[in-house]
Fold:
Amino acid sequence: MKIGEMKIACGPICFALQYRDLDGGAPHRQGAGGAGGGNADQGVCIQVVGKVEGKETELLRFDCFDNHPHYHYGPENKNVRIMLDPTVAGNPLGWTMGQLRSKLPAMLARAGYEALAVQLDPYQLTKTLPEVEARAREMAMQQRNTVRHNRGTDVIEAGNIRFGLEMRTVGPDGGIAIHVLGDIAGQEVELLAFDCFRTYPHYHYGPMNKNERIFWDTTLVPNAFKWTMDQFKAGNLPAMLQRAGYPTVAAALDDSIIASALPMVEARAQEMLQAAA
Structure:
């Protein structure tokens, strides 16, 4: 993988930082499988880099992602990838910094770079890591990919949530968009968004929060609007809202109110599609 451009030197190694934003089944990676089968994720990537036989080499990599955080021993050597359980480890970036402070020589040795591990100066490492952490946390805040959509031209109330509908045009693409809206701390927030576009249909978990964007595989899901309505009718909204980061909204949903609102949502969306045809 390409080494990050932000580099912080530390004796025989350096720490390279970059922000990674992976779209699930994005057009250039279409065919990842499922209804949007790629692994949409984002977060700070911290690479430990050093010279091996005169070549700049990625020795360790920590992908501090939202959904599937993990780390690699020797990405250019043995590439052992280990998944991190954030339920136990806590914040992936905080966990990573803890390992760099206490376990870096041992991790370098396991990755196959014992010669570099013994060259590390513990004092220099202690002085360098606060800057690494400060830059990484700054990057995590400033480079997070979020999106703010319109709320929709037609809004249908459904208890503690509402459905916003609009016909969207994005360059040569577009189609019906369904925004699932709710109130958080007195402010209306877009919780989920379904862009049922003609060419690159996709949906968002928490557009203003984590913005996990997943592209449908149009071979398996030829009608994104129908797929979206099917998820609502099947009762999948609570699970989707939880994944988007809004468990309290999910817990307060009233199934009967949503069931009564969905025919209005579907009928109005069909009218908008026919008018735009």
Q: What stands out?
A: The two ends are 44 Å apart (CA to CA). The chain has two domains: 6-142, 154-276. Residues 6-142 form one domain. Residues 29-37 have pLDDT under 50 and may be disordered.
